[in-house]
Amino acid sequence: MSDDTEPQKTVRLWDFPVRLFHWALVIAIATSWWSNQEVMIDIHALAGYSVLALVLFRIIWGFVGSSNVRFSSFLAGPGKVIGYMRKLPNGSVRDLTYPGHNPAGGWMVIVLILLVAIQAISGLFASEDTFLFFDGPLVAYVSSDVASTMNFIHHTNINLIYGAVALHVLAAIFYLMIKRENLIGAMITGVRKVPESIAAGFMQIRFASPVLGIAILLVCGLAVWGMVTLARG
């Protein structure tokens, strides 16, 4: 928890492309869930293609984006993660000191990216012949056994996504209510207030061009659209 008596300074934290990715992914996953419940398979497919494009973007942005969103900046070793988790319950660790993801949060990002990537990719090869009557755009290129396996993965992996999302939301609530650190607000505005004594660390963040980020996202979207269009041929 931060020291409220210390002067605060507003610092930039998250770049626009990563914030756009975050909330677009939230909308895409929510739309995917809703369209599945309402048996609106065309919308469900579009949501899945959007997820795939977003995942492709985040992977690329993890190498060329702002310094604090690159994978190399927030993927910590097991020792640091365990040490962080041990200190978390007693409040002796301050997330305000991390100019990006904390050691545990960094790995949660990877887990979420992997899970949604598996979901989107398996959907491309899945064949649903019960009440949806839908074939993924790449199902014609694999055997029936592979399509069946992908269908099983698609229906099973979504539960892991729900669990990971629930954990992510609970963690954000924990930080807001217990540690008094508004991680959600920072992901919306891109800025946060930190004690002046640690603000220098945030000033060292090298922000990538938002234009570059939007361009990469558009290219990823076009790549997925082109792949689906050619496959449907």
Automatic annotation (TrEMBL):
Cytochrome b561 bacterial/Ni-hydrogenase domain mapped to chain residues: 14-190
Chief location category: membrane
Listed InterPro entries: Cyt_b561_bac/Ni-Hgenase, Di-haem_cyt_TM, Hydrogenase_cytochrome
Membrane topology reported for the UniProt record: Multi-pass membrane protein
Keywords: Cell membrane, Membrane, Transmembrane, Transmembrane helix
Keyword hit for Cell membrane: yes
Highest taxon in the source lineage: Bacteria
Transmembrane segments: 20-36, 43-64, 104-126, 160-178, 207-228
PANTHER family attached to this UniProt entry: BLL0597 PROTEIN (PTHR30485:SF2), NI/FE-HYDROGENASE 1 B-TYPE CYTOCHROME SUBUNIT (PTHR30485)
Protein name from the UniProt record: Cytochrome B6
Species this protein is from: Thalassospira xiamenensis
